[in-house]
Amino acid sequence: MDMTMSPYLKRESDMSGSHNLEIYLHLVDGFVRGKGKFRWNSRRDVALVNKGSDMLVEELRIPEFWYQLPHKGLVKNGYGRWVKPGRNPEDIPSPFSQPSKI
Protein backbone atom coordinates (compact mmCIF):
# COMPACT_ATOMS: atom_id res chain seq x y z
CA MET A 1 0.00 0.00 0.00
CA ASP A 2 1.27 3.44 -0.90
CA MET A 3 0.89 6.05 1.85
CA THR A 4 0.94 8.86 -0.74
CA MET A 5 -2.43 7.65 -2.08
CA SER A 6 -4.31 9.08 0.90
CA PRO A 7 -4.91 12.85 0.95
CA TYR A 8 -5.27 12.63 4.74
CA LEU A 9 -1.76 11.35 5.53
CA LYS A 10 1.35 13.49 5.86
CA ARG A 11 3.82 13.11 3.01
CA GLU A 12 6.82 12.83 5.31
CA SER A 13 6.81 9.59 7.20
CA ASP A 14 8.80 8.06 9.98
CA MET A 15 9.46 4.46 10.90
CA SER A 16 6.62 4.30 13.42
CA GLY A 17 4.15 5.68 10.88
CA SER A 18 5.07 3.22 8.19
CA HIS A 19 4.45 0.25 10.53
CA ASN A 20 1.16 1.41 12.02
CA LEU A 21 -1.85 -0.93 11.85
CA GLU A 22 -4.33 1.97 11.82
CA ILE A 23 -2.60 3.45 8.76
CA TYR A 24 -2.74 0.11 6.96
CA LEU A 25 -6.45 -0.22 7.77
CA HIS A 26 -7.03 3.36 6.58
CA LEU A 27 -5.26 2.64 3.28
CA VAL A 28 -7.10 -0.65 2.74
CA ASP A 29 -10.45 1.05 3.41
CA GLY A 30 -9.75 3.84 0.92
CA PHE A 31 -8.14 1.64 -1.73
CA VAL A 32 -10.20 1.29 -4.91
CA ARG A 33 -7.86 -0.18 -7.51
CA GLY A 34 -4.21 -0.08 -8.56
CA LYS A 35 -3.85 3.41 -10.05
CA GLY A 36 -7.20 4.82 -8.95
CA LYS A 37 -7.81 7.70 -6.58
CA PHE A 38 -8.27 7.25 -2.86
CA ARG A 39 -11.93 6.71 -1.97
CA TRP A 40 -13.20 9.88 -0.24
CA ASN A 41 -16.23 8.16 1.32
CA SER A 42 -14.36 5.46 3.20
CA ARG A 43 -16.18 3.94 6.15
CA ARG A 44 -13.32 3.84 8.65
CA ASP A 45 -12.90 6.91 10.85
CA VAL A 46 -9.76 8.76 9.75
CA ALA A 47 -9.16 10.01 13.33
CA LEU A 48 -8.13 6.47 14.28
CA VAL A 49 -4.85 7.01 12.39
CA ASN A 50 -3.69 9.55 14.99
CA LYS A 51 -4.76 7.35 17.89
CA GLY A 52 -1.18 6.21 18.34
CA SER A 53 0.76 8.37 15.87
CA ASP A 54 1.08 11.82 14.32
CA MET A 55 0.50 10.95 10.67
CA LEU A 56 -2.64 12.94 9.75
CA VAL A 57 -2.35 16.28 7.98
CA GLU A 58 -2.70 19.31 10.25
CA GLU A 59 -5.78 20.60 8.36
CA LEU A 60 -7.87 17.84 9.97
CA ARG A 61 -7.04 19.21 13.44
CA ILE A 62 -6.96 15.76 15.06
CA PRO A 63 -4.47 15.76 17.96
CA GLU A 64 -1.57 13.37 17.80
CA PHE A 65 -1.43 10.33 20.11
CA TRP A 66 -4.92 11.20 21.34
CA TYR A 67 -5.84 7.77 22.70
CA GLN A 68 -4.98 8.35 26.32
CA LEU A 69 -7.06 9.56 29.23
CA PRO A 70 -8.93 11.85 28.79
CA HIS A 71 -8.47 11.34 25.01
CA LYS A 72 -7.15 14.91 24.67
CA GLY A 73 -10.71 16.21 24.71
CA LEU A 74 -12.11 14.05 21.91
CA VAL A 75 -15.51 12.44 22.40
CA LYS A 76 -17.57 10.00 20.33
CA ASN A 77 -20.48 11.62 18.53
CA GLY A 78 -23.80 9.98 17.64
CA TYR A 79 -22.25 8.33 14.56
CA GLY A 80 -19.45 6.73 16.57
CA ARG A 81 -16.80 9.14 15.24
CA TRP A 82 -14.17 10.77 17.47
CA VAL A 83 -14.58 14.58 17.31
CA LYS A 84 -13.80 17.67 19.33
CA PRO A 85 -16.82 18.58 21.46
CA GLY A 86 -18.63 21.86 20.93
CA ARG A 87 -17.89 24.62 23.42
CA ASN A 88 -20.10 27.35 24.79
CA PRO A 89 -18.81 30.82 23.87
CA GLU A 90 -18.68 31.62 27.61
CA ASP A 91 -16.15 28.80 28.13
CA ILE A 92 -13.72 30.09 25.50
CA PRO A 93 -11.09 32.37 27.03
CA SER A 94 -10.95 35.87 25.62
CA PRO A 95 -7.99 38.24 25.94
CA PHE A 96 -10.45 41.06 26.56
CA SER A 97 -12.00 39.40 29.62
CA GLN A 98 -8.64 38.81 31.34
CA PRO A 99 -7.51 41.39 33.89
CA SER A 100 -4.58 43.46 32.74
CA LYS A 101 -1.23 42.81 34.46
CA ILE A 102 0.22 46.20 33.57
Automatic annotation (TrEMBL):
Single GO BP term: lipid catabolic process
Keyword vocabulary terms for this entry? Hydrolase, Lipid degradation, Lipid metabolism
Domain of life of the source = Eukaryota
Q: Which molecular function terms from Gene Ontology are attached?
A: phospholipase A1 activity
The protein's Enzyme Commission number: 3.1.1.-
Q: Top EC class per UniProt? A: hydrolase
Q: Which family does it belong to?
A: Belongs to the AB hydrolase superfamily. Lipase family.
Could you tell me what this protein does?
A: Acylhydrolase that catalyzes the hydrolysis of phospholipids at the sn-1 position.
From the Swiss-Prot or TrEMBL record, give the protein name: Phospholipase A1
Q: Which gene encodes it?
A: LOC111010759
